[in-house]
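Q: Predict the bound structure with coenzyme A.
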Amino acid sequence: MQNKMPVKVLEFLFDALTDKSPRRRTIGRTKGAIELSQAILAKGWAYISQLEDLLLETDHRTSRIDIEALATYFELPLRSVFQKPRFVTASAMAFRSLSVMDAAALLVYLEDIGFDTNPMLLIEGLLPTLASASHVTGSEWTVLAYQRLRQKTQTTIRADAIDKDGEWASNKLKDTTGRRLEFTRVGAQPYQLQVRGPKHRKPRHEFVTCEYCGHEYTKGDPEAALTHRAEHARVRRCLDPTPVKQFKDRLLTAKEPELVIDSSPIWMHRQMYERAFRFKREMQFDFTQWEGSARHKNAYPESQAYLFADHTAAYGPGAIVGACAFWKDEARWRLRWVWVCPNMRRAGVLTRRWAQFLARYGDFELDLPLSPAMGTFIAKHGSDRQKNFIKDFKAEA
Ligand SMILES: CC(C)(COP(=O)(O)OP(=O)(O)OC[C@H]1O[C@@H](n2cnc3c(N)ncnc32)[C@H](O)[C@@H]1OP(=O)(O)O)[C@@H](O)C(=O)NCCC(=O)NCCS
Ligand SMILES: [Zn+2]
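A: Predicted complex:
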């Protein structure tokens, strides 16, 4: 509800609901309450004065309650109601009233925020009239749902004004029924009342993990769904790549089309970054081993990297099926990481480049730890030195 409560009325609610004087233990089936409810049901209307009396029967703290202001806040229409005169031309006195349905809803809302009311006295009489309804007003809905939702709701009421320079202070209490009330003041003014029924359960956020992209999000949250959709698409561009036009052109024109260094275009650096990130995720490493970002190039002269073009028809020319990054320490080159998209593994993507890497970077080092797949790869395609290196590594492990 977007409505705001007049500060004065909220002040009354704060005062009344923090009143600690003892209340009746059993709420509401007093003779007075029953008679008043029957009279209201019989008329179909509840005069404001009758409602005040009815509330006082069940909760003495309502003595200064401003029913008209509360009805307005809860969007319950007040009407002028007349006792039908015997002669239609005669004059009659008007009573400010709520329809019995709206009166019952008001009792429910007041109970929700912490007053002892007994809406059931009215609701019992109203339910049969709703049994065959095909459409319902808000109040009728409240009446229908009362028994299901009782004590389970949470209500937040805000003031129509705020002291902009005031300090925020909250005060909590649990009442005898088990409701949890929180009173927030800003400066000297009341600002917010929040009441949770004793059986209110915070909606349980069900966490789900997308099996494809690994993104964790809360089900049923539209905001989270949007974030997931963006992340999912981003991951898909790495896992199931589609041809990149610029890459396709580059493969036809550039001398070393797959090489990514400082002078390479930014889109290549961006594609590197995405794959460095996927590698990190898959291997569950803490750091992305790439000095660039989505917006900045990796400009280090020590860095040389490669985007792998699809050499098969699986994703087509221009699709990027993997990447790897080398780094030069002192005089020696080292392969920091290599990542091939899952569907293209064991298809010779790395094998067909290995000899060229050995030729260009010499008998380069390998960053540890090696994955089992990479260990097997080196055992088959590595240089003698690399093979010995992984034998030592395996012996140590
Ligand atoms: C490791 C990886 C880079 C290998 O690239 P690839 O293009 O799939 O390798 P190739 O197809 O050229 O494989 C050549 C040989 O290496 C060995 N090999 C590669 N992956 C293997 C695996 N998962 N299990 C067993 N042997 C494997 C095989 O002997 C293979 O030859 P075969 O398919 O004829 O049996 C790739 O699997 C990958 O990206 N894995 C996830 C990331 C990773 O582990 N990176 C290395 C971290 S150190
Ligand atoms: Zn996903």
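A: The longest strand covers residues 320-329.
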